[in-house]
Amino acid sequence: MFTPHQACRACGFGFRGPGGIKAGTPDNLTEVFDLGLQPLANDFVPDGAERSGYAPLKVMHCPRCTLAQLSVTVRPDILYRHYNYVTSSSETMKHHFERLADDLRLLMGGHTGTVIEVGSNDGLLLQFLSSKGFGNVCGIDPAENLAHVANTEKGVQTINGLFDVKTAAEAKSMVGTLDAIVARHVFCHVDSWEQFLNAALSVCDDHTVLCIEVPYCKDMLEKVEFDTIYHEHTSYMTIRAMKILAERMAFKLVKVIRYQIHGGALLLVLAPERSLRPVDPSVKEFLDAEEITLDTWKEFSAKAKKQIATLRSFVQTARQNGKRVAGFGASAKSTVWINACGFTRKDLETVYDNTSLKWWKLSPGTDIPVTPEGGLYVDSPDYLICFAWNFAQEIMEKPLVKKWMAEGGKFVVPVPELKVYPAP
Ligand code: DWN
Ligand code: ZN
After folding, report:
1. CA nearest 67: which of 234, 255, 316, 310?
2. Which residues pair with 268 in a beta bridge?
3. pTM
4. By the 8 A CB rule, do 42 and 364 touch?
5. Of 267, 268, 275, whose CA–CA distance to 250 is shortest?
6. Nearest residue (CA) to ligand 1, atom 26
7. Is the pLDDT of residue 167 over 60?
8. Rounded to the nearest whole angstrom, what is the distance from the C-alpha of residue 169 to the centroid of ligand 1?
9. From the alpha carbon of 227, which atom of ligand 1 is closest?
10. Other Cβ atoms within 10 Å of 36 Cβ, number
11. Are strands 325-328 and 351-353 parallel, antiparallel or unpaired?
């Protein structure tokens, strides 16, 4: 189900076995965070279906380039062949897409050019870019269910498969001259960056940009977003690591843009090394402001443990006082929280979600049922723990949540530190 991964994906530092560096020497990656054996974060299954199992969830830090990565890699077909996560069509995401489209247009010299998207999910972004006048677009996604939706319901041509030299060539043949490859929240899911970047390079023209959007490790550490650590996220990206990696793989890092989406993200813009595109000052600026050390991780780990203890005791106290508690947002993050806190169905009655793919399925590791968010109107629990805190503001403004809060419901946002709305 999973394989050990001990050498740094970005710079190659670390244990390599016979003939390489010996275990136990200071040349190994350093263990910085450990949640023990955990279920796969999106393993929501209907009653009676087989579970995928558990795998170690341990983060290792590379002292040479500051990349963090998991100690194991779960087989991608287990994680993604049938995928339960659909890109949110929320207002927050729409704003983000607007911003991304503007940035792509600028990178294309003011034009709305052609785009290949890697990990295109159900085609939401490409559909949006097409509506904004971008030229030919083509998606590539390993999830059979989502590629089917993109092709048949969204009208976005999508190749079902992993991104490699073959699928890249197929996609390029569909769009023609290629202006941008976009990979949103997929690069840090990938095991072999060499394979990914070789595939990208094989279809890049001199002017093509490779735009990689990733959650930013610095934000995760500063805001203690420990719940974004799960098996799909095999790496936690730093700008230093990306620069080293890009230069190893015949690319150069030409621009860095910060976004607020998903708790803090980066757009890392790469161009083929041979291209004449100049390096933007943002690369140096953000690099200079990035200091991630073992101490940063120690601090994060201690704060994460405190966060877990705080939510656990909050829910216990509420239950001891006879209150009913449920979750909101059956995100991958919800799985991490629920299992880290050891919540059972007695603690959280259900987790509400608006993704029909997740409805009536059971949460990984705990079997807490996921139910449609409309159920809130009738169930009326006393507390809702928001596991989609990256959309918290928008969720609190939804009519059904507003109504429930007006009737006395309390909305609890656990990140960056537990807050209750309305304040007691
Ligand atoms: O990298 C990844 C990121 C980008 O997305 C993936 N590995 C998996 C996924 O992580 P996640 O599941 O934590 O993503 P979200 O988008 O934070 O999940 C939010 C959940 O909340 C979704 O299941 C949808 C749900 N939701 C809802 O029920 N009502 C969201 C909104 C905004 C709502 O109004
Ligand atoms: Zn490294």
Report:
1. 234
2. 212, 256
3. 0.96
4. yes
5. 275
6. 329
7. yes
8. 31
9. 13
10. 10
11. parallel
